[in-house]
Amino acid sequence: MKDTYDIVFDHKDNKHFNQDLNNLIKRSPNNNFEKWLFKDKQLENFSPITIVNEKNEIIAALGILKFNVFISGEKCSAVQIGNFFIKEAYQNENLEEILIEAAIYKYSNLVDILISYCGVKDEEILKKSGFERRQEYLFFIPWNEKEQTESSKLIKLDLSVSHDFELVKEALLHSSKQSSILDTKGDSLVKFHNIQKYFENDLWYIPSLETVVCFRIEDGIFDFIASFSSHNVDVNEILNIIVPRGIKRVDFGFMPDIREGLHITKTDSFVRTGLDIHSCLYLKEITTGLKDKKYMFPLLSRQK
Question: Is there a single domain that holds both residue 149 and residue 252?
Answer without folding.
Answer: yes
